[in-house]
Amino acid sequence: MVQKAKILLVDDRPENLLALEAILSALDQTLVRASSGEEALKALLTDDFAVILLDVQMPGMDGFETAAHIKRRERTRDIPIIFLTAINHGPHHTFRGYAAGAVDYISKPFDPWVLRAKVSVFVELYMKNCQLREQASLLRLQLEGNGKDAGGEAKEPAGLLAELSARLAAVEEQAEALTKQLNDESTDAAAVATAAHLERKLTGLRRALDALEPGTGSTSSVSSQN
């Protein structure tokens, strides 16, 4: 069963949160509400999110201050933030949003289709990163366990490598298709950069796996390089 990504919606007005939920429900992901910056920071303490939709104008801790706290935390600094605002004070206001760490800055009223498309890109990147971490974890566990299966029996090296290679190939194919889609659509630079980073990670994992093939090096040499 595929794990759903979580999307954090931050706005002090319930009607705005309801509208965002209506727009993003088609993505079939887990939507988490927060009615203030403080509530958003609390949610980020325990859950991992693919992307944050953050209202700028909120009483107390506004969107800029909330984003600053998010970017200061090691756990959350890499989560993409899309700022939503009902007012536009010109280039300076927009620049402040990007300076606070936003990957995008959208003025209300926004096009629901555009917002949904932007969010879906970051959800897909998040899911690919999760797959990559799972494959890396599987490889590490298999190496540490000397290739034993769940019952403690040793697996054939060739079969183990073939299984890992097939799983990695599936992620590589999906990442390549996503990168091509992002480049063709000339979408957000941040999304393109994130996809490129994902492909670099995949390349490193592929090299480590290839080094385990007979005649290309030992397990110990691979472990010493990581």
TrEMBL record:
Keyword Transmembrane among UniProt keywords: no
Keywords of this entry: Coiled coil, Phosphoprotein
Modified residues (4-aspartylphosphate): 55
InterPro entries: Bact_response_regulator, CheY-like_superfamily, Sig_transdc_resp-reg_receiver
Every Response regulatory domain range: 6-123
Any coiled-coil regions, as ranges: 161-188
Domain of life: Bacteria
Name of the protein in question: Response regulator
